[in-house]
Amino acid sequence: MTFFMSHAPVLAIIIPLMGAPICALFRGKTAPWLFTLILSGIAFAYSIDLLIAVSANGPISYEIGGWAPPYGIEYVADPLSAFVMVIISGISTGVLLYAKDSIANEVPTSRLGFFFAAYLLALTGMMGITVTGDAFNIFVFLEITSLSSYVLIAMGARQDRRALTAAFQYLIIGTIGATFILIGVGLLYVMTGTLNIADIADKFDSISDTRPIRAAVGFLIVGIAIKLAMFPFHVWLPNAYSYAPNIVTAFFAGTATKVSVYLLIRFIYTVFGADFSFGTVYLTELLLPLGVIAALSMSVVAIFQDNLKRLLAFSSVAQLGYITIAIALATEAGLTAGILHIFNHAIVKTGLFLTVGAMFFATGTTSIKALAGVGQRMPMTSFGFVLGGLGLIGIPLTPGFISKWYLIQAVLERGDYIGYGLAIAILLSSIFAVIYIWRVVEILYFHPSPEGAKGSEAPLSLLIPCWIFILGSFYFGIETSFNVGFAEQAAQFLMGAR
Amino acid sequence: MFFDHFNYWIVVILMMIGLYTVMSRSNLVKKMIGLSLFQISVFLLYISMGKIEGGTAPIVSNAPDVIYSNPLPHVLILTAIVVGVATTALGLALIVRIKEAFGSVDEEEILSNEDNL
Lengths: 498, 117
Hints:
heterodimer; A: mainly alpha; two-stranded antiparallel ribbon; globular; B: mainly alpha; 4 helices; 0% strand; elongated
């Protein structure tokens, strides 16, 4: 077993990567799904092992092929990356538990092998971004994730042909974002002569006040912001999430943007260093307003959506606004709140999208009007949606409450009017969340079913994974030692690293 | 000034042409061309920065005091070129599917088709 443990950082990436082409060979409904589920589960097990090892013994460095950094490629599992890896592989495995019937309903059986191959590649890319310690490697994994996610989103075309245009729009915007990141990495390389993140960070202070570095910072921040769907760059996200197959939406809602958040934290705090990011280039002044606008305006836009998936997608952009605010605070408390919200939002939003997927499975629609009366026809699914919605709003005992509590404490720590203003903005945005969730709940429960409405309760194979996420979210809202503990550990590590 | 940094000026000009094409054209194929141009400008940026004045190809020779160009950016950009090819292929494949589904490759026509669903 020691071989498998000492190679854990790379095995968590290699196993899904190597599995993808094999998966493409499988035919039928069960084989590709089961294979993907097993590989994702293995990656999840390795991530948990890594997280335990990292929290006990500190960061783990792995040299690919035995070449020592800075010349070789280094994989680094530190408290932040191990925590994000657990989130990604955990969400992926949970979504896969649910996937079998849901995806067979939406994608032709002959394509399932390819579909799950793309899914494994997306998982590989996201895990790779978090664990790699090499700046160029980040770009490569980012493109693996992006290309496979364009494919996965376009697979929704059988349900709604607009999935194709959504995928194309995402391809254009996503490629521009990734290329900006590539330019930024190139400029960093020109100035430092190295691609190893720790090595760049070491040399960064001596060259930080040069024009290429400022340009690199600009390109990297904008590129990551596009991938993160930070407000004004969020246009691709609602389309992509609305038309993608349901399990793809659930998977990406929990992971894809979270990986970009991880990148933003990694570059701001580890590579540039907090002093440079917030003292020299004023990222607080740049990111705070964007976060506030996202949290407020996108919550309002969500109120007026007709499609349930689109509503939740806009709510995702708003929630990313909270995380942006938290990162921009440049304090340990803020960073803790941000990392905590990555976890909490991932579990709540994935649970919500899974319940919506179950409604789609039974009724064949996600239009809010057409879902009238689903509360009577599908009581378990609807109740799951209500509980998930409470988590999104941030009612006590839900994880949404925990992260908002930490976030509000962090903004009040500023002690000035901006801090009070931010706290009011966060509360206001939560009130908007009450409105858009209530609007759905009202239609689900208190409007009569349309004549001849089809659909009874979703099968157990969909219900059980939904409720794992919903009940899990309540578990992490009450017993917070896991998520808060690791978020605090990661924040301390990042603030102490420089 | 211009000729001192000739490569880099070309990079900037190509990049702007590419980005402008992506944003201004409504024909999806032209958008892909713009996107490729934009990516290619970045390839050129990487290749230019590996060049060292007076440097030769990085092949070990026994001659004394040889200056080698830096091969690493070239190797890196090979990877990025592959990624660019994959992106273009996928984008074009999507355009074919869009043409089948909407009967047009023009963004504005597609948008008006979408409304008629």
